[in-house]
Specification:
Layout (H helix, E strand, L loop, with lengths): L1 E6 L3 H11 L5 E5 L11 E2 L8 E2 H13 L3 E5 L3 E5 L4 E5 L4 E9 L3 E3 L15 E2 L2 H4 L7 E5 L3 H11 L4 E5 L9 H8 L4 E4 L2 E8 L4 E8 L5 E5 L2 E4 L3 E3 L29 E3 L11 H22 L3
Parallel strand pairs: 1-2, 1-8, 2-5, 8-19, 10-17, 11-12, 11-17, 12-13
Antiparallel strand pairs: 3-4, 6-7, 7-8, 9-18, 14-15, 15-16
Bound molecules: flavin-adenine dinucleotide (FAD).
């Protein structure tokens, strides 16, 4: 029986597990892929106090730090059910089941992809998903933002201050972002908005992105825009499908938490991109992991016999 069982293998999980293990309690990690989204990241320049690193390096550092402690790391294992109770049960896809006094959910999220030719090939070579992370890499260049919801329009406003020009493409006939954001967007001199546009291809020279093609849904004509970067902003999907019906989720499927990381189920805490936390970043996920872990410890000292 674990005292704290952490589900997930990203920065939120590593931080939660290390905080728990440092209390001298039985700690485990179940991770489908240790490292999480960080593994897919090239340059990381906003992990404060580390001027520059990359994803594989940071993932390795997370693992090495966790291995300094007595943490039972079960990598390449996927949790597929949570059963509440005095001892919380976590069922794994491989048929095994684990029991713990507290559980910390840190299963992260994934960016929704366009699924068009060239997108995967040019990922991190011009195709980006996070304007806070990669925006400065496109200083003075031309970029597109795909998606006219709040995140797309926010990204376009943010990027317009850094890059030479932003083209925002929206599939629908109109943007779906809040009016105040749209007003700001349309006031910017270096932004072009194209609606009724279905992105069909990311083009490149073999090394880097050099443009994108889209279908004008009015005329069915295929058009091409030359640019150096594409920010895909069509949704961030939390990895919480397996929790539906047990833990309270928001309309977007994010785990609802309070200031201590506590979920709607007693003894179950959550941290990072899988939760309702408003901004999704490594440094924020790590802080949230520490919060959830201290929340779980607080819960343990109030509820378990010494
Ligand atoms: P994740 O990193 O998503 O980790 C979730 C973990 O849970 C994974 O190990 C996954 O395998 C595991 N998991 C999922 N479901 C299950 C399950 N059912 N059972 C067991 N395990 C499961 N942020 C920055 O601060 N700076 C950057 O420069 C930056 N660049 C980025 C670039 C890219 C391309 C991407 C995709 C993201 C970037 N981010 C960046 C965002 C950052 O990576 C995330 O905010 C951060 O990784 C979130 O951490 P997390 O621990 O909450 O989740």
């Amino acid at each position: 029986v674990f005292d704290v069982l952490v589900i997930g293998g990203g920065p939120a999980s590593a931080s939660a597990a290390i905080y728990a293990a440092r209390k001298g309690i039985r700690t485990g990690i179940v991770a489908e892929r240790f490292g999480g989204q960080v593994l897919d990241t090239m340059a990381i320049e906003n992990f404060i106090s580390v001027k520059e690193t990359d994803g594989p390096k940071l993932a390795m550092a997370l693992e090495q730090h966790a291995k300094e402690y007595e943490i039972d790391i079960m990598n390449l294992q996927k949790a597929n059910a949570l059963v509440p109770g005095e001892l919380i049960e976590i069922k794994l896809e491989n048929g095994a089941s684990l029991k713990s006094k507290t559980v910390i959910l840190a299963t992260g999220a994934r960016w929704r992809e366009m699924n068009v030719p060239g997108e995967k090939e040019y990922r991190s070579k011009g195709v980006a998903y996070c304007p806070h992370c990669d925006g400065p890499l496109f200083k003075g260049k031309r970029v597109a933002v795909i998606g006219g919801g709040n995140s797309g329009v926010e990204a376009a406003i943010d990027l317009a201050g850094i890059v030479a020009h932003v083209t925002l493409l929206e599939f629908d006939g109109q943007l779906r972002a809040d009016a105040v954001l749209q007003k700001k967007l349309f006031s910017l001199p270096n932004v072009t908005v194209i609606t009724k546009a279905l992105t069909t291809e990311v083009t490149g020279d073999g090394q880097k992105v050099n443009g994108l093609s889209y279908k004008d849904r009015d005329t069915n004509e295929i058009k091409h825009v030359e640019l150096e970067g594409i920010f895909v902003q069509i949704g961030l999907l939390p990895n919480t499908d397996w929790l539906k019906g047990t833990v309270e989720l928001s309309a977007r499927g994010e785990i609802e938490i309070d200031a201590r990381g506590q979920t709607s189920v007693p003894g179950v805490f959550a941290a990072g991109d899988c939760t309702t936390v408003p901004y999704k970043q490594i440094i924020i996920a790590m802080g949230a992991g520490a919060t959830a872990s201290l929340g779980a410890f607080d819960h343990l000292i109030r509820t378990s016999a010494p």
